[in-house]
Design goal:
Layout: E1 23-26, E2 29-38, E3 41-52, E4 56-60, H1 67-76, E5 78-84, H2 93-99, E6 104-107, H3 112-116, E7 133-137, E8 146-152, E9 155-159, H4 173-181, H5 193-198, H6 203-214, E10 219-223, H7 234-255
Parallel strand pairs: 4-5, 5-6, 9-10
Antiparallel strand pairs: 1-2, 2-3, 3-4, 7-8, 8-9
Helix pairs in contact: 6-7
């Protein structure tokens, strides 16, 4: 949500900002952390690259990288699907589409109107015909966010967007203030406060989604769009977040 549902502009050109090296999480699964420039510091954002059958890849929350890293992605497979996981992650979709004009742009159904302001949307479901990679529309938030379940022999990876943040190491005063004030998971993974306030419409439905993911067999990690990969007890974290949603829902109803 750092990029904002009402982002005033989009990048037209391939502009490489600060970013790290691509990290291999599992077979055919890469991730890299970049940064969004902001006053008094940069805020972390993360892109995930998923290998698909047929030497293709799906790119989640695109970030322009330097050419050596782009060659690594292309070596994994042809970038065939560009996933905009939520309304606030449209910043660099135009230059990615320009670089890979045959790639299809995919987003959640409730985000389509927002994404269309930046680029034409080709689909709102997983049209890649690979049963090991499943795209879901997250319930409880008006269909605005997508999630991925990636099943490999080594285990299952859940990729989610702004539903959970784990920004343990914000860089600069501005990033520290934003991460702490808006609840981007400085001390532990959590739903950002701005997300609870602005986007969560049905806390019970969202809590059920977190519990369903927690019950996923052999869940190994959670990849978030803002912050570190969660590799320690991901199921327990999802259960805790679901319980927090239940509790906050009770408190909200009691206050009425």
């Amino acid at each position: 949500m750092a990029e904002g549902d009402r982002m005033p502009r989009f990048n037209d050109n391939w502009t490489v900002g600060p970013h790290g090296q691509l990290e291999q999480l599992d077979e055919g699964l890469l991730t890299v952390e970049g940064e969004i420039r902001m006053p008094l510091g940069n805020f972390p954002r993360r892109m995930t690259v998923v290998g698909l059958t047929g030497q293709r890849t799906a790119i989640w929350s695109v970030i322009p990288l330097a050419e050596p890293q782009m060659r690594e992605i292309e070596a994994l497979g042809d970038p065939s699907f560009l996933i905009v996981p939520g309304p606030g992650h449209r910043l660099d979709i135009k230059p990615w589409k320009a670089r890979y004009p045959k790639a299809k742009v995919i987003c959640a159904p409730g985000a389509r109107d927002a994404v269309q302001k930046a680029i034409n949307v080709d689909a709102t479901s997983d049209v890649w015909a690979d049963p090991s990679v499943q795209l879901e529309t997250v319930p409880g938030i008006a269909g605005k966010e997508a999630a991925l379940l990636i099943r490999r022999e080594g285990g299952t990876t859940l990729v989610i967007n702004d539903l959970l943040a784990n920004v343990r190491h914000p860089h600069g005063i501005g990033a520290h203030i934003m991460a702490r004030l808006l609840g981007f998971g400085v001390s532990h993974p959590q739903i950002p406060r701005i997300g609870k306030w602005m986007f969560v419409k049905d806390r019970k439905a969202l809590a059920m989604a977190f519990r369903k993911w927690a019950d996923e067999p052999d869940l190994k990690r959670i990849v978030v769009s803002h912050g570190d990969v969660i590799a320690s007890e991901p199921g327990k974290i999802l259960q805790r977040v679901a319980a927090d949603l239940d509790e906050s829902g009770i408190m909200k109803n009691a206050a009425r």
